[in-house]
Amino acid sequence: MNIDLSKYSFFKDHSIENLTLLENQGYSNRNYKFTYNKSKYLLRMFLLEDRDRELEYKVQTLAFENGIAAKPIVLDLENNLMICDFLEGDHKEKLQTEDIKNIAYLLNVLHRIEINHTTIDIEKEFKEKSQDVIEAFSYIDSCKKEIALCHNDLNPKNFIFSNKSLKLIDWEFAATNDIYFDLASVSVEYNLDLREEAYLLAFYFGIEGWNKKKLDAYKVIYKALCKQWFKENTEPI
User: Fold this and answer.
1) In Å, what is the CA distance from 166 to each residue of 82, 110, 163, 169?
2) pLDDT at 51
3) What pLDDT is stored for residue 72 in this prediction?
4) According to the model, what pLDDT value does residue 107 have?
């Protein structure tokens, strides 16, 4: 990588050390870790061209201010990169009840963040729709809209669990959407069983006010959308 980070005012007073390409890369960015003045930072080189990076930076800033994201420091659209604090922690493939409770709390915080943004139309994201997907959208259309700022990419690699907190990374798909899309993605990605789903909904909504059938409809949509996305983006970075 050939970028002089000292040109950014935040990094001008000390040298950059230990710039390392992270071992586990995703589909959307090329990620590096480095040390500056004894603190660790994450450098993300953007590889998707269809993302609104200014919106991503704004959303991550709001999420950081609410304690659920790393602090963003630099957005350089000319060089297609963002720098933020590096979060120490682990990913989990299987959730305990306390983890589900913490995710529900985090989503409550996220979904209460106010932002003025056009709600994404998930149905328009589909190139083609199966009968199950058509029926899922038909049911959702009959439900109350519950629109809020959503992460929209809640796979296990985007949750960072530590002893002190639970935070989210990779905000490039964040936008206003129905809150059930985020809830459904957690259920699908962590393969929650009926009991675990009940915990998720109860921790998020309380004893009443949730719609299991709506969650199931969004699970159908989320699975189909992921299948389409991975079909179009088959080679990992």
Assistant:
1) 21, 12, 8, 10
2) 86
3) 97
4) 99
Whole-model pTM? 0.92
Angle between helices 131-141 and 212-232 (to 10 degrees): 140
CA neighbours within 13 Å on the CB side: how many for 114? 0
Residue 8 has a CB neighbour count (10 Å cut-off) of: 14
Candidates 215, 223, 186; CA nearest to 104 is 186
CB-count exposure of residue 85 (10 Å: 0-12, 13-18, 19+): middle
Residue 110: closest CA among 168, 160, 57, 192: 168
CA dihedral for 19, 22, 23, 27, sign (positive or negative)? negative
Q: At what angle do helices 97-111 and 194-205 cross, to 10 degrees?
A: 40
E strand segments, 141-221: 147-150, 159-161, 166-168, 175-178
pLDDT score, position 237: 44
The predicted-structure confidence for 144-200, as pLDDT tens digits, reads as follows: 999 999 999 999 999 999 988 999 999 999 999 999 999 999 999 999 999 999 999
Report all structural domains of the chain as residue ranges with CATH numbers, in order of start. Answer: 5-85 (3.30.200.20), 97-232 (3.90.1200.10)
| CA 183 to chain CA centroid, nearest Å | 12
C-alpha neighbours within 13 Å on the C-beta side of residue 30: 10
Q: What is the pLDDT of residue 133?
A: 97
What residues in the chain have per-residue pLDDT under 70? 1-2, 25-26, 234-237
Between CA 144 and CA 146 the distance in angstroms is 6
Question: Helix count (H) and strand count (E) of the chain?
Answer: 6, 9
